[in-house]
Structure prediction request, 1188 residues.
Amino acid sequence: MKRTDLALEARELWRENTASALPPGAETETREEGGSTLEALAVTSGEAAEALGKGVGKYITITPEALLRREEGAFEAAAALLGRELRSLLELPEGASVLVAGLGNEAITPDSLGPRTLRHVLATRHLVSSLPETFGAFRPVSALATGVLGNTGMESAELVKAVAEKLRPDAVIAVDALAARRLGRVCRTVQMTDTGIAPGSGVGNARKELSRGTLGVPVVGLGVPTVVDAATLAADLTEQAGLEEISAADFGEYGGGMMVTPREIDQQITLMARLLGYGIDLALHDLSVGDVTALVG
Amino acid sequence: MKRTDLALEARELWRENTASALPPGAETETREEGGSTLEALAVTSGEAAEALGKGVGKYITITPEALLRREEGAFEAAAALLGRELRSLLELPEGASVLVAGLGNEAITPDSLGPRTLRHVLATRHLVSSLPETFGAFRPVSALATGVLGNTGMESAELVKAVAEKLRPDAVIAVDALAARRLGRVCRTVQMTDTGIAPGSGVGNARKELSRGTLGVPVVGLGVPTVVDAATLAADLTEQAGLEEISAADFGEYGGGMMVTPREIDQQITLMARLLGYGIDLALHDLSVGDVTALVG
Amino acid sequence: MKRTDLALEARELWRENTASALPPGAETETREEGGSTLEALAVTSGEAAEALGKGVGKYITITPEALLRREEGAFEAAAALLGRELRSLLELPEGASVLVAGLGNEAITPDSLGPRTLRHVLATRHLVSSLPETFGAFRPVSALATGVLGNTGMESAELVKAVAEKLRPDAVIAVDALAARRLGRVCRTVQMTDTGIAPGSGVGNARKELSRGTLGVPVVGLGVPTVVDAATLAADLTEQAGLEEISAADFGEYGGGMMVTPREIDQQITLMARLLGYGIDLALHDLSVGDVTALVG
Amino acid sequence: MKRTDLALEARELWRENTASALPPGAETETREEGGSTLEALAVTSGEAAEALGKGVGKYITITPEALLRREEGAFEAAAALLGRELRSLLELPEGASVLVAGLGNEAITPDSLGPRTLRHVLATRHLVSSLPETFGAFRPVSALATGVLGNTGMESAELVKAVAEKLRPDAVIAVDALAARRLGRVCRTVQMTDTGIAPGSGVGNARKELSRGTLGVPVVGLGVPTVVDAATLAADLTEQAGLEEISAADFGEYGGGMMVTPREIDQQITLMARLLGYGIDLALHDLSVGDVTALVG
Prediction:
């Protein structure tokens, strides 16, 4: 069983297992923009959803090649692209309020994408009243790190729901680490989707769903693949080596709590969390990259 | 106007302003134990409460002199004393659950006592199910850093209440930074009280009350003085210099957002937060200092 | 005795104590640029140096008003101005190597400017060989946090000297926290000077001099005032209140280890350290603000 | 090629490849003590050194089983055992000075053992003069994080040497992350050896040797395995699955910059770094676990 949270890889698996590029009821479109590749997948029918294992909705995958090569000006371009796509997916009326939820555990590097992204998200809601001359014209944005709340023993989804009921935001952005099938994708692509965060996402911990269905307002799921799990690795390794299929159970100690990551995972997640945070700020406010640096770093 | 959150200083002010040691309806008792001085104040009547500006209840002030001199074995002794007194103030039945709320903003050093204390508090609630063989026998403890929640724009007290309604703990410990009148007390005493956290506590930010009256369960307020505000300093300075009384307004820029702290405030708060965290763990579970070090550091 | 590390305040004290604007042998020039005020002071004679208590050399003080008001685009403008002035003060030949030394103790907030600035400084020296395709064209820059080295028990200046002897950089930038006379200047101005770091700078700890005289290469001192010491405060307070001069000794406990800082000192130093770090990167390399964000955050 | 830094695994590989338990010139001894297993290996001849791939000297491996099970009192016991063994390996005269070097990069979790251990090491050298009443009787200990120094572009070993030449310590303790062959050993054993740190240790980065030969004083290497490299994993996986031997080259992308770690690597390294730091403090000074907590946390 190969596990992936990426629409891109779900499509790839479909292509490997069938002769066709896409199931009926699914459409895809790819374009290059300012050093990044953007692939949009629209799942429009229940049949396509079942075939791909991805709910009905839009999935946008951005691979910021120029940024990954550390090219000049690439961060501004990638953050701006991310901001524009997120803004377009959210379709927020002026002044609409947003709750940004960072899921995951800061103490486990590959699970820390959500809380690390929040470090760069400008939470304006409490500033509007205390510093109106500076923040009066900003959209009200709240930030919630559920990992810290996780110490209360409440489920992340339950907590987002409880806080959303009090704050009544017009939309929710839920940021979480994703699992990929291929190591080559880890910390190299950003996925955003209007289907929210699906159950079983992240580094393998069951979390309840966060979606329009459970929260009553639009929920955009935003994430980056940060791990490949050991079973998926094992299956891939044997295939690549031209061996017969073997099960994860054969691998004993590797089956359970192990994960495979790039050696420089901390630095890569740091960069991706910064990109996501800046993208969110640029989507929600009219700011430059330098403004975000001055306001939240 | 001299501002203090310390029962010890409220009593001191009473003594300075009247001829008597204490108002009727208040009792005090001092003892030395293992290198610390402990002063207990009981306020038993409304008249005494009004006279002292401190609600009806018990106030325990611990000054860990041996620890402040970095004497051998002093940390174990002070943490154990704190643990015993806190346990006795809480009077918890076996297995009773506790919510520990850390108030304050981690990014402002003198306001960071609450969240820093939480770093050393063992939150067991979510561990009982995931690691029953290790944590099955522990009391369920939840930890909540309201400062991070503060990014949501909800009041700290409102959030503690919302979470307490969901979790229904049998008692709450609220940790917060306090304001002192004398610089000599900053980061040198611990105060705990069964009256909870009074409005206006902390570094001058109005926070709503956390008490048995507002939460419906026993609430112990636990804190350490971390600042003297500029107005109090100004008044004290002029008195010490034998000058006439002058008002804070005379001091222009010093009146507002300034605070006076010891030069080594970060290190001192680090030590006090560790002491409080260990004290809480020792009060709530049967652990040694080394066990706490291994479990939460 | 009023203590200041700021050329701006040295000039101010001269003006208060004499009838003249400047001593002979000193010149000043002020201009506004992109939301910042820049004051340049040139001390050209030994007499002027003695009169002002500042060595012969250039002093540039930048007050980034627009940034302090959090205006749009202000960070880019202030970082660019800082970068240009620093570049002009350094006069580096192409490819010349630089050692950036961050002085001070990260654990003491007002003394943490140096190490915090280093977090945003791109140290390229070790990257040129490991990632030549990305960093091959960069100037070799080394970063040294002496505070951590301080744990070795060697003096900061001695350590910078030892490392400089091994690395043989073409220039040194020494970043340190400064002491101001007026609270209103704390975390609001940046000073850079080609005289290096003078003895006794910073939060009152004697550190040996870092200058062309002691290191053999040009040394630029770069700093921000982060504290007013208690004695200076006391003297100022009494003056403002129209009282007679009193000495710091009158203030007992306030005289020694106390310091006065703005309530939000952590956030302010965070912003100033970011500004300094970005300014250094822009001075030493051809980068945009977004490039710096992607590379070092 | 299976890579390991562990003497325990070198012996294991010898046993797997030959019929004998140990080569001539090597001796081993195992005992249990206070919840830990201790295995001592003495390599006494050049032939044994070559056969095992481990230099002539003593290797002590401690597996703190009780601590890994989070048993009560296990941290005190394990830290005390580590302290006693380290003290015995160092054989320091009274008052002898020590330099503790933490190798590795704090930004890469599995390489962060060295710098994280330093957080818990009491650096007394600079305190003896500033706080003689508290630290006057302590042994002078200096701490050096070479990772930060790594930003200067000097080799870690070169820097330790440069600092050692200035400070002239009587002994050096070098702490570094190690590579293991088996995932089951990652973050579960501590190795100390009087042979210092061998070249090629750590997470695969070539570092020059730190030993009595290069530093002129006794050097104890202290480490914990934190990774298995991808090639070793691949070889092990295929063996376990009963497959023929295949080379790492077969695994394409997995060969290079990937590593395999337990999911909870951050927390496990945090605990191991704390254990090592406390062990060093207990070896070098007469302190209790609580004293160390109060002094360095």
Notes: The radius of gyration of chain B is 19 Å. The first strand of chain B starts at residue 26 and ends at 33.
